[in-house]
Amino acid sequence: MKLDGKVAVVTGSGRGIGRAYARGLAQAGCAVVINDVDGDVAEQTVKELTDSGAKAVAEVVPVGGTEAAEKLVQRAVDSFGGIDIMCTNAGILRDRVLWKMTDEDFDSVIETHLRGTFTCARAAAIRMREQGRGGRIVVVSSWAGQRGNFGQTNYAAAKAGIAAFARTWAMELARAEITVNAIVPNAITRMIASIPGMAEMVEAAEKGTPLPDMVRKQMGMGMPEDVAPLLVFLCSDAAKDVTGQCVGLGGDKLSLWSHPHEVSTAYHDGAWTADAIAQTWSTSVGSRLESYGIPFLGGGK
């Protein structure tokens, strides 16, 4: 699958899944703007790509505010003549249970994930619409955003909001032939090592221990490189009619996530009262409650 002549910005692409995304796009022929808060890491990734014959430059800036987003898009324009792809991957974790989470814990995660996705997508959309040649915006949601996860109030809220961004922007940008989709990745990176039960798996993966089939298939979890092909596909002509979707990939498992929708309804002549709801609850809308949490992390209910 070729993306020759396309120009991409991948936020948070100095390491981890972001670097895998950038590699995948570069291998498909994209020129890539690498973004990270660590200049050395960003330059190392640029060198890796350019040494392999790809075109890449670094923009070292913390994602979140408007100025950073505009710098990223402008770097793509100045270096490669425009922008065709924006992948909003940058993120941080500040995991704590609700009663221990501080304002700073909450605000910093929302700033990077939710606001950063908004500002970068907006800057890219403005430029893409001006160019008049369409484009691809690929945002990054998560299992936590779809299902909730213990200790991740801030992260789950941000990632749920990002999924909603994709559905909304797909409608708003359709006329400009800009598709918007959300990736729901499931990969082993340093960032997930703080999640209970994941540290040992991360350590083993970093040592090069092959992941067992149970992890790759049942958990649908693999290495960062396993997720990158989904981004390449979504940015290609093969996915020109795919928009407004949340698509998961991890290990050997590819999936399409459902959107929130009514699963059961009941009607009552006139207005519902609390007593009337209680009387009909267990035999109507409450007869089968929705599950929540991430099963393979022990939080599924």
Overview in brief:
With 301 residues, the protein is α/β, with parallel strands linked by helices. The protein has helices spanning 16-27, 39-51, 66-80, 103-131, 143-147, 153-172, 199-206, 213-218, 224-234, 274-281; strands at 7-10, 31-36, 56-60, 85-88, 135-140, 178-185, 246-250, 253-257.
Written account of the structure:
This protein is α/β, with parallel strands linked by helices and 301 residues long. It folds into two domains: 255 residues, NAD(P)-binding Rossmann-like Domain (Rossmann fold, 3-Layer(aba) Sandwich); 38 residues, no CATH class. The chain is 42% helix and 14% strand. The protein contains ten helices and eight strands. Strands 3-2-1-4-5-6-7-8 form an eight-stranded mixed β-sheet, sandwiched between helices. Helix 1 links the parallel strand 1 and strand 2. Helix 1 crosses helix 9. The two termini are 40 Å apart. The model has no long low-confidence stretch (mean pLDDT 94).
